[in-house]
Amino acid sequence: NELIKQLKQLALDKAHKHSAKTTEHADNTVITGLLTILLTMILAGVIATVLINRIVIIPIRLVSDYIKSLSQGNVDFEVEPRKGDDVIARMYEAVTQLQSNLNEGTNAIDGSIQILVKNSEELHNIAETIQNGTSQQYQRTDQMATAITEMSSAAQEVARHASDAAQEANQ
Fold it and tell me: Rounded to an integer, what distance in angstroms lies between the CA atom of residue 151 and that of residue 81?
């Protein structure tokens, strides 16, 4: 009986030691697993942050900068092409189209201004020609008036001489 008790006790002690080792290994495995999950989640968070920054935030900031440049009247810059069919790619297409439309409008306005300047110069030349013609016409009219006045004076003098001669002849 005593031998059985000792064997039981020995088996029980061995079982407790084995149980303690198993528990210790299980605890280590749980801690290792939790640390692995935590590190994986941190790494996934960092990767997600970098990807979101590269895929979403940086392109949106660039579009914002392009729009700001356009709003300040700067239309001479290159919009980076963006491939895809997502919202950001459509924003890039819209900015490119807006830039193109503003360039066309600016070119049309420049063309109109050049035509206006040319027509203004032509109108100025026509006005100078009319002014010169008017001045020449005024000078000719003035010369004709002077000639008519002189002829009138001469006619009056001839009439006076004729009247004087007629009076002398009658006497």
Answer: 88
pLDDT over threshold 90, residue 144: yes
DSSP H or E run through 151: helix 87-170
Encode pLDDT of 101-117 as tens digits.
999 999 999 999 999 99
Predicted local distance difference test score (pLDDT) of residue 24: 93
Q: Hey, how many other C-beta atoms are within 10 angstroms of the C-beta on 95?
A: 20
DSSP 37-54: HHHHHHHHHHHHHHHHII
CA distances from 104 to 107, 111, 133, 145 (A): 5, 10, 43, 60
Sequence-ordered list of residues with C-beta below 8 angstroms from that of 77, at least 6 positions apart, any chain: 66, 69, 99
Q: Which two tokens stand for residue 157?
A: 């003098």
Q: Please say whether the dihedral angle defined by the alpha carbons of residues 161, 167, 169 and 171, taken in this order, is positive or negative.
A: negative
CA-to-CA distance for 164 and 115, rounded, in angstroms?
72
Q: How far apart are CA 81 and CA 93, in angstroms?
A: 8
